[in-house]
Design brief:
Elements (H helix, E strand, L loop, with lengths): L2 H14 L1 H10 L7 H8 L11 E7 L5 E9 L9 H11 L3 E7 L9 H15 L4 E9 L1 E4 L5 H14 L2 H20 L1
Parallel strand pairs: 3-4
Antiparallel strand pairs: 1-2, 1-3, 4-5
Helix pairs in contact: 4-5, 5-6
Length: 188
């Protein structure tokens, strides 16, 4: 086989998802210790459909070992609709203790948009309520951007924790209980 044909075959295999499936299977049980490790695992996944935004999740156990890597959502050239409840359903089904979210920007620009930041906040909040960690949100393009490495994820997580610890959450629960108890007394 000529060098040209080998190269063409390689790119055909890459686009077909053949390598993505091999990476998914060979990554099970592997520890994710940094954003660069996660990026190298996920990079072949985005070769399948690099003309639309696609969202993947790496589901991890308590030792940060890969349980599963799944394509969660796919969209258009510049957006993908993401439903945190669907992520939560998979987290619970897989008994994951943490996840890494990643999506691509077909433009190649890896800077997070306002929508990316908002999504990260929603996912952090949803996961925090069930004691699961979001270790990172990667944006893949010409290279990658790690929200964890740049501190954005820590800031979002801190704000979420602050909100939950300000008694707002407890006040909502307690006010609901008090109202129910008063209604029961009133009916009696």
């Amino acid at each position: 086989m000529s060098e040209f044909n080998q190269s063409a075959q390689f790119w055909e295999d890459l686009k077909s998802g053949k390598f993505a499936e091999m990476v998914r299977e060979s990554s099970k049980g592997r520890e994710i210790s940094s954003s660069v490790v996660a990026y190298h695992i996920l990079k072949p996944m985005f070769a399948e459909a690099n003309d639309v935004e696609t969202v993947y999740c790496i589901f991890l156990n308590g030792q940060n070992q890969v349980i599963a890597i799944e394509k969660m959502f796919s969209g258009t050239l510049n957006c993908a609709v993401v439903y945190p409840r669907e992520i939560i359903k998979r987290v619970l089904a897989l008994h994951a203790g943490a996840i890494i979210v990643a999506h691509n920007h077909p433009s190649g620009n890896t800077e997070p948009s306002e929508a990316d930041m908002s999504l990260t906040g929603k996912v952090v909040f949803a996961l925090t309520t069930i004691d699961v960690l979001l270790h990172d949100h990667l944006i893949v393009g010409d290279g990658y951007h790690s929200m964890s490495d740049y501190g954005a994820l820590q800031s979002i997580t801190n704000n979420c924790q602050k909100f939950l610890n300000q008694n707002s959450y407890h006040q909502i629960v307690n006010n609901g209980l008090e109202k129910t108890m008063m209604e029961e007394r009133h009916e009696a």
